């Protein structure tokens, strides 16, 4: 498991990561979400001992990463798919990894097959790889030592839709066999399909955290009516929030039954009523990270 306690990283007076604490349990995939520049990569680099924290601690399998003996056998890491020697072939990169970890060479072929890189592709130099191929190679490298923990920073970057689905299946299978997965993304949909738990970070601080199902059920209700304004006013007078939903209608924190009763009382005709679920989570994600949304910054 991964345990992060009060982790902080400052660059001058700027806190890129500010007192962040969370745990990632075995058997689960945890999605680490946040907009660009929120602090995900900095946090992951600290977990992997690549960036020293200003304060706080991070342990993987009970120890700081740097103290793990032969860490690749315990923790698979993919932080930057481009961080390999461009002149080496994919096969050479994996073979070097296998030698350093003391693994049998057949593991290289197994991993190449697992990530869908064929013989010819494995003999190409990294500089000639597409972004998606680099990601596949990075995932192969992370899995090489048959680790118990995976730490992946934006692994779906550059993968095509089939590749993204394949990766989700792979991570789900890994967690179902007892593995621990921390997976970052700035795209909610990319991780919410596969994640059990979510940690949402904005401007270096955790803004939401918990089981995806709990976050989804707290995501409110989406409703469409023939008179949205009237229902919105009625919901607000009853003490509920009511905001225009992305794509039309109203998003409210009231339960569907409460919305139905209030609509009946005020004689508003409902044309759609559903738990906001995924859409609500997206709404929440946008709201939680609104302070960081670059699109919202005045020119
Ligand atoms: N070495 C550094 N020196 C100064 N500032 C840094 C350094 N590394 C990161 N930062 C800043 O810390 C903040 C967090 O960056 P980080 O790369 O962790 O974000 P992120 O959530 O991974 O973003 P993205 O989704 O864009 O990859 C950013 O404002 C970034 O500019």
Description:
This is ATP-binding cassette domain-containing protein. GO terms for molecular function: ATP binding; ATP hydrolysis activity. Belongs to the ABC transporter superfamily. This protein has 299 residues and is of the alpha/beta class. It folds into 2 domains: 2-209, P-loop containing nucleotide triphosphate hydrolases (Rossmann fold, 3-Layer(aba) Sandwich); 216-296, 2-Layer Sandwich (Alpha-Beta Plaits). It contains 11 helices and 13 strands. The chain has helices at residues 40-47, 90-101, 106-114, 119-122, 131-143, 161-176, 188-192, 212-217, 228-237, 256-265, 277-288, and strands at residues 2-11, 14-24, 29-33, 55-60, 75-78, 149-153, 180-185, 197-202, 205-211, 221-225, 242-244, 250-252, 270-275. A 6-stranded mixed β-sheet has the order 5-6-7-3-8-9, with helices on both faces. Strand 6 (149-153), helix 6 (161-176) and strand 7 form a beta-alpha-beta unit. Helix 2 (90-101) crosses helix 3 (106-114). The longest helix has 16 residues, at 161-176. The model has no long low-confidence stretch (mean pLDDT 89). The structure holds adenosine-5'-triphosphate. Adenosine-5'-triphosphate is lined by residues 11, 16, 34, 36-42, 186.
